[in-house]
Structures are given as structure tokens and as C-alpha cells.
Amino acid sequence: MPTSTRPKAVITHERGATSSVERALRVLRVMSEGGSVRLTDIASAADLDKATALRLLDVMAREGFVKRDAQSKQFTLGPELTVLGAAALRRFDPRPLARPSLMRLAGVFQDTVVLSIRSGVESLCIDVEEGTYPIRANYLTVGSRRPLGVGAGSLALLAAMPDDEREAALETLSGQLERYPRITPALLRERIDQARERGYAVLLDVVVERMGGIGVAILDPEGRPVAALSIASLNDRILTRETALAHALLHEATVCQVRWAEATRAHRRPASPLKETSR
């Protein structure tokens, strides 16, 4: 993704109350899509002036959380974040649970399959499996963030949220859709109603022209949406195969839910006490 198109960081606090920690976290969130990023683009997307952004980046570079290329002067994520990410994933990583489903869906339908999770009022792409169809939806990469409702998987997450949480999210989202002029609060509510009725979400020709997606939510044992599976493709390839795509996605979501429940139980199960051995 070109750096100039990176979305603004989601800001839910008053500007005057912003701490240095909050500013630094906004910078890291902007950089989460990976790749090299210019200072100008980081500052713009994080809603900071360049001097403040550079000061934060210099501190994070000294601590190993970002790196700066000596020639291009662009910034990338540093090794310390890899350590933190690995530590977080040791607690619970949903990707291995869903990867077989991504591979099966991409193999059958030959289109791009995406695994997303919710992060506040955004959806975060955490895994992608590309199909073999020549025209591919390559605008979603691991680390891509979008407001909830922007994209089929993101819409499926929003539709599956409890009513009160979804309403609160929609209130927040109303001011964050300027980059997607075809997506209005009214359109979102209409598509949410359709998704809740059908059990899957469809969004065509509103994020990327002539492209769209179909997605389903993956629920935890309490019935809350924890992730979404979606297929991105040309509009015609979705419309002409909608029933087959929906059935396959719903099946794979159920498979993921079973594996998720098993993994959750295993994670919560206390370790067996060590038996004292005689000497």
C-alpha cells in the first residue's frame, strides 16, 4: 500500500489530553502495516506535527522498537516489537486455527481469503491466502486496518457484535468514513440488517471499484465475534457464486469455532500438579 494512502490513526480522546505514550502508540499503529514509511506520512496519519513524530521515533529507535534506514531515511518496525508480538501470540494465536480454512477456501474458489480480527472500532487483517485467479484483490495485506464495516469481513464483525456495542461503534464510526465516500451510516445499517438476516455479509463496489467481498464472523463459545473469514474478488465472481461462497464460508467458520473453543478450553485448563517421586 502506498504510504500516502495510509488512514489516519483512530483518535478517541481530546487533543489537549494526549500524552506522549498515546502519541507513540498512534505512531506504532500507523506503522503496523509493515514496510518502510516516510516521516511525513507517519506524522500525517498519526495527526502529529513532524517535529513531535520525529522526537517519538528517535526515542523508539534507541529502544529498538523502530529502525531508520540511513540512506532512505524511512522508518520500519524494529526487533523489539517482534519480541513483544511473539510473547503475545504465545498466549493465544488464532492464525494456526484458521489457516487450514483459508487454504481450503482459496483452493476451491481461487480468490483471496482474509482472516481479520477486531481492534477497537477497526478490523485488522492478520492472515491472507491468495488464490490462483489472475485478477486478485491485493489491496488487503497483513497489518491492514480499516474502520469496522469497511469490507466484508469487517462488516461481518460489526453485524455480529452485541446491539449496544454495535450502536456505540456506529456512533464513533460516523466521523471516520470520509476516506470511503460510498459508505454512509445509512448504508452500513442496511447492510448490517442484511448480514444479520442472512448470516453472512456482502459488500460490493463501495471500497474498491468493481471489487467486493463476502464474509462471515467467527464466534467464541459465548457467542461474541472474535474474528472473520472473508473472500475478496471481482463483483461478478461473488454475485454468480454467492450461495456457494456463503455455504463454504459458514462451514469453515463453524470449523474455526470448534477449534477455537477447544483451544480456549486447553488454554484455561490448569496444568496437572507434578507428582512427587520417590528417591
TrEMBL record:
<keyword id="KW-0805">Transcription regulation</keyword>
<feature type="domain" description="IclR-ED">
    <location>
        <begin position="80"/>
        <end position="279"/>
    </location>
</feature>
<keyword id="KW-0804">Transcription</keyword>
<dbReference type="InterPro" id="IPR014757">
    <property type="entry name" value="Tscrpt_reg_IclR_C"/>
</dbReference>
<dbReference type="Pfam" id="PF01614">
    <property type="entry name" value="IclR_C"/>
</dbReference>
<keyword id="KW-0238">DNA-binding</keyword>
<dbReference type="InterPro" id="IPR050707">
    <property type="entry name" value="HTH_MetabolicPath_Reg"/>
</dbReference>
<dbReference type="InterPro" id="IPR005471">
    <property type="entry name" value="Tscrpt_reg_IclR_N"/>
</dbReference>
<dbReference type="InterPro" id="IPR036390">
    <property type="entry name" value="WH_DNA-bd_sf"/>
</dbReference>
<dbReference type="InterPro" id="IPR036388">
    <property type="entry name" value="WH-like_DNA-bd_sf"/>
</dbReference>
<dbReference type="Pfam" id="PF09339">
    <property type="entry name" value="HTH_IclR"/>
</dbReference>
<dbReference type="GO" id="GO:0045892">
    <property type="term" value="P:negative regulation of DNA-templated transcription"/>
</dbReference>
<feature type="domain" description="HTH iclR-type">
    <location>
        <begin position="18"/>
        <end position="79"/>
    </location>
</feature>
<dbReference type="GO" id="GO:0003677">
    <property type="term" value="F:DNA binding"/>
</dbReference>
<dbReference type="GO" id="GO:0003700">
    <property type="term" value="F:DNA-binding transcription factor activity"/>
</dbReference>
<protein>
    <submittedName>
        <fullName>IclR family transcriptional regulator</fullName>
    </submittedName>
</protein>
<dbReference type="InterPro" id="IPR029016">
    <property type="entry name" value="GAF-like_dom_sf"/>
</dbReference>
